[in-house]
Structure formats: structure tokens, C-alpha cells
Protein: histidine kinase
Amino acid sequence: MRFVLLGAGVFAASLLTLHGQGGVPSSLPLPVLVAVAAVAGLTAWHARRSWWPLAAVGAVTYAWLAMWPPLLVASFHAGRTLSRRGLLAYGGGCVAVCGLSALAGGWFGGRREMMTASLGNALLTALAVMGLPLVAGLWARARHEVLEAAKERAERLEREQVMRADQARTQERARIAREMHDVVAHRVSLIVLHAGALEVRTSDEETARAAALIGGIGREALTNLRDVLGVLRSPRREALDADVRPPPTLGDLDRLLDQSRALGITVTRHDEGEPRPVEATVERTAYRVIQEALTNVHKHAGNAGTDVLIRYGTGQLEVEVRNQAPHDPHEDVPGAGWGLVGLRERVELLGGTLRTSPDDAGGFLVSAKLPSRETSPP
Structure:
């Protein structure tokens, strides 16, 4: 659009210049002048691809008819695009065009001779038509180069900042992975070893079963911990690990409830609504809510009876874990207190809500409502 307007402007300015020029040969009729102006306008429009045709038309028409608009625009483009050697060649061409125009002015005489053949007017016209546009083109190119250099520098600084941030995150992830491996994995490994030793040495069948259960849970915890450490050390492994060992969903819930029952808790499962497949992220979050709630029952309520409810609603999946008051005094297992905080973050990230509250009978309720939509079975 910009070059269309430029072509129209060159055409109009050229036509006005020719029509009002006293030195134009009287043998040229108006249609010829219109055609010459139209050619100048077309070459100005074509300058978006190549400005050399405009320069050629400008040189010919300035030397022949003292028509300056195409040469003015061509001089600006020369300043924008030519190298130092090209500028010297263009300057020499402009001097030659001015000489030819002066000869033509002396030939035609009259006003044309005064404009292009007299030294003062010729220099002033050359400066206005060729010199100033050339300088303006050089200034525009320099400004463009400065802006491009500043943009490139800003982009480079942004890339370096991102790289430094990624490096810092990688180092921090590696540090956390080392700490988890050296502390948590070591402690869990000791638990598994002691449970295995107890299972082998004890003569009591019930104790052996409990030791085997503890050992199995510990080995599962080590596997999960190894997966987390792998993700921390190399985030790109996350997708691969997800394919090899998919995270648990509601299909694994019965195994989780059986583990709690083996530890002496009476867990009852209730399902309401028609079970249907939902998004994997929703199922995983629901599973983690139930897992964390049962862990809190083990820590704080001992062998209190617990009800687990899964309710399939319209566009919503709701899970509830409600435990009764403990039957006998139970010493709390120390914890960091971040379990429910992490659950709330998981649930709210999916657009759901998490509610935790004690009841009047001394029990505790954990309830999560997760928005979900039905998915096609695999």
C-alpha cells in the first residue's frame, strides 16, 4: 500500500512538473506528458522490488525534460541501499545527468536555460533533487541499522538471561535430587532392609506379613522416588518415564485401599453415579487426594474406620475421604504439614476445590470436587 501511494504521488508530481514547466518542448502533446508521468509512477511503485528502473527513468527525464520527482525518490533509495562504492558511482552518474540537463537547457533556452544551465540554479536544483534525498536515505539506513542492532542486542541479552535461568534451575534441581537421594532414599532403603530382615527372622506369622507389607511399600516408594529423581535430573525423561511407569489412577485405587486395610484400618469404598472414563490428569489428582487423606488417617487417627466416596456427576468428579474418631489414643506421626497444601495446589490447578474440616464426632473430612469431561475409552 505504501508503494502504491508512492507511485501515485510520483505520477501526480511529475505531471504537475511537466505541465507547468516553461522549458518543455512545445512539440510534446499532453498525452505524451501523461504517458511519461505514468511511466515514472509505475517505476516508483516497482521500487519495492528494484529501484534501478526508477533511477534510469529519473535520469532520462531530468536530462530531457527537467522532471525531478523520479530522480528525487531514486536518490533516497540509493542512500538506503548502496554501498560506499555504489554511492560513488551513483554520484558520478548524477553529475553526468546534471551536465546533460545543462546542455539541454542551453539548447532549449528560455526558462529551461535559466533553471538548469545557469551555475547557481543548477547547483541548487542538484542539491535539492539529488543531494538532500541521498543524505536522507543514508540517515534512514543508519537509523534502521542502529535499531536492528539494538533489537538484536536485546534479543541476545534475553536469550542469555533465559539460558542463565535454565542453568540455575538445572543446578537447583540437581541439588535437590542429590539431597533426596542421599537422605530420603537412604532412609527408605534402611526401612526396606530392616523389614526384610524382620520378615525372615520372626516366627510370628502376623508379624511376618506386616514386615512383608512394609517392605513392599518401601520398595514401591523407592521406585517412585527413583522416577522423581530422574525427572529432576533430566526433565526430558519425564515423558519416557510416563510411558514406562504410568502414574496411578482410579484403576489402582483398590490396591491402595488394600494396603490401608492390611495396616489395620477398616476402609469402605462407595461409588455413586455411573462410572465413566475421565481425563487422566483428573484421575491422577483424585487418586492423590485419596492417598494423602489415607496417609493422614494412618498418621493421626490410627485404626479409625474410613469411608472413601467417589461420585461421578455431570461435568464433575467428586471424591471424599471421611474417617471416624479413633477408638483408642494414638500418637501422631510427625509430618511437615505440606501434604494438604500440595493437594490444594493440585486441585486448584485443574479448576477444582478442596475442602478439609473436622466433624463434631471427632472425625475428619477431605473432599475434592474436580471438573471433568467424559473421554473415549482407550
Summary: Residues 227 and 241 are 7 Å apart (CA to CA). The longest strand covers residues 306-313.
